[in-house]
């Protein structure tokens, strides 16, 4: 469906009263046709449309295309990502909603960020018969704590000006660390450079000198300075000795380093091997994209296409993780989450981790989603596998022990054990029980050692074995606790690990003792002989 003209979008965001959110899943007070509500709906539809573009590009096999076509599609992808950020900023500006869109900002991977910048501007420069060169020093940080939206807007204006005013040659972006680990991003062009009059009014609003023969109003560098102040950076402008201009963005270490060492910064993506995940999403492109990302992380995925199907799936079984689109037919994501939380409370079950996916990004939307019971929010479009994995890790970290169940009954189910020994046969049954006790001993010592040494990999390895052992003898409570401990270790949630380890070790000891008793009782005659 073709969206409204840009002029309608602009007109819809002028003179806006207090916002109330419309939509099938995000209900609120007020007139749905008020300018601010219309702006919120337009913003939602714009994000949803861009999500389709980005999702389609992510699913497409670009390797079959010629290099020029690949470059153009990479440019489209980069521009669409930038459009998402500009949409958010515009919507926040006109509605007065300046709060963060979801959880605290995450560190930005500098390499992939620069790759996107390079792909976008290589295509732009090529259209004007120019070259574009990206030079990166070897000692750049892997991650920076700088707002990627602001940084991309700054570079877009810096590089855009350089491309505009270079009649031939190439534009170069050089990224390196300067004195005291300042991050320097320098854009050099082959144009005429800045006149004295232009330098005097360089950062003024519409500061282009009236007698300038160059097109435009000079707004770009005004925007650059304003954004640079926002991210605590400096702008330097100079004319090159051999012609051309050089505009530099300098981020002191205190500006780019904060947040990089925060717990949310993961060394690797979460491992979802063996985790069951329900995905409720009505858009087929988004559904396929999310499925591919989850399967890349190792998850077992169940897909549903609307809210009613999601509610039915959640009523039928429990999932390790639930991903719910907020705007769905028949039943909204808000109502799906509310039903799930009500059912869990009535049954006395622990709450399942829920990640809401939405194109609504205003604070009122977020408040309503969290009030319904979501553990986290991921804004559409999903920009990368890294962002997707980080959002999932945050949600799982909030409910690491959601599978844990109280200890009920005997340490093993006698029917399960009888069946297991019958399959082994009378001659091998004794050996099987003895080996299980030995394996449980190895698991017990490994979990204890892993906890003492803060070795999450060792805890994961031992709990992986424990899950199978507990399941084999029908100890569902220990199996659930082992799965919860495995999940907590996998995502590095050390507080949860510390809380789970004592109970798990105690139950392993109880199971070992019970199997030892069975060994003596069932094979007493053989032992006596």
UniProtKB/TrEMBL annotation:
One of its GO terms (cellular component) is plasma membrane. Its EC number is 2.7.13.3. Pfam families: HATPase_c, Response_reg. It catalyses: ATP + protein L-histidine = ADP + protein N-phospho-L-histidine. Keywords: Kinase, Phosphoprotein, Transferase. GO terms for molecular function: histidine phosphotransfer kinase activity; phosphorelay sensor kinase activity. Residues 41-255 form the Histidine kinase domain. This is histidine kinase. It comes from Rhodovulum strictum.
